[in-house]
């Protein structure tokens, strides 16, 4: 079985109702089970440069790594270790590319981006993120947040300075404590989760969850999970109907079939490319 037959993936982005430029970048590769979303920040056009660099570097590095490794090469690492290493390495490469570009081009000084990425393998998903772009999972009727924002607001919630309810109306929503490309090094957060047939995964920029309540996100995903394109369009439309104050991007992934392989993780993936 090919991995793209086990996963249905849809990606959509919109500049919103206020911003003149779209500084979000998104990319997917169904054959690799890979999805990457970045929300850029910086001066004029620098945000879209940062997010574009991040997505391009991550997609190129991971897909090339998967497609170039020989299945006869002995690899003692587990699938989880490989997946985590691929995400971590590519995020660090993206960080280096953005940081160096900002150092050598005055117009890009201080640019950076958030990242949320997902790599599906062996009935699991490895999730790597930096900043406040998020991943949610709809399982049955339950919507769960799978990432923790790297933001000042989240730190205030964690230490009890502000309640979750009051945080919804805070003016500090967009103050991130980690971003890709701001410093010479970055610390991504990476976790691995088991997946089930029927799961729907949502990767999004904060332009969605800042404008749409999680209960409404859940309702839309649950009602429209059979048509991911319509669901993505409805999520974006709802964000825009509620004001659309930021760019809004969504990637939806639905697990249609199991995709575990009896062989090693790397050779299994390579087998999908060759079939």
TrEMBL record:
Xref: SMART domains: PP2C_SIG, PP2Cc
Record-linked InterPro entries: PP2C, PPM-type-like_dom_sf, PPM-type_phosphatase-like_dom
UniProt cross-references to Pfam families, sorted A to Z: PP2C_2 (PF13672)
Organism domain of life: Bacteria
Regions crossing the membrane: none
Domain PPM-type phosphatase: 5-255
UniProt-recorded Gene Ontology molecular function terms: protein serine/threonine phosphatase activity
Name of the protein in question: Protein serine/threonine phosphatase
Organism the protein comes from: Gallionella capsiferriformans (strain ES-2)
């Amino acid at each position: 079985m090919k991995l793209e037959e086990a996963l249905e993936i849809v990606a959509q982005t919109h500049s919103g109702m206020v911003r003149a430029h779209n500084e979000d970048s998104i990319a997917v590769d169904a054959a690799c089970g890979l999805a990457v979303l970045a929300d850029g920040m910086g001066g004029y056009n620098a945000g879209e440069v940062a997010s574009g660099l991040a997505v391009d570097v991550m997609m190129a590095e991971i897909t090339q790594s998967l497609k170039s490794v020989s299945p006869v090469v002995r690899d003692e690492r587990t699938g989880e270790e490989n997946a985590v290493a691929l995400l971590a390495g590519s995020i660090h490469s993206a960080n280096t590319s953005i940081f160096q570009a900002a150092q050598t081009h005055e117009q890009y000084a201080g640019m950076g981006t958030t990242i949320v990425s997902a790599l599906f393998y062996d009935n699991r998903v490895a999730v790597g993120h930096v900043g406040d772009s998020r991943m949610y999972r709809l399982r049955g009727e339950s919507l769960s947040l799978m990432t923790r924002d790297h933001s000042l607001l989240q730190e205030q919630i964690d230490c009890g300075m502000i309640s979750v309810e009051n945080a919804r109306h805070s003016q500090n929503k967009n103050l991130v404590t980690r971003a890709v490309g701001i410093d010479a090094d970055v610390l991504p957060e990476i976790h691995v989760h088991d997946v089930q047939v029927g799961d729907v995964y949502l990767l999004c920029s904060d332009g969605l969850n800042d404008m749409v309540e999680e209960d409404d996100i859940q309702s839309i995903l649950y009602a429209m999970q059979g048509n991911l394109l319509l669901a993505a369009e409805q999520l974006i439309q709802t964000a825009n109907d509620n004001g659309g104050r930021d760019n809004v991007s969504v990637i939806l992934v639905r697990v249609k079939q199991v995709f575990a392989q009896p062989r090693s993780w790397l050779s299994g993936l390579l087998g999908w490319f060759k079939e």
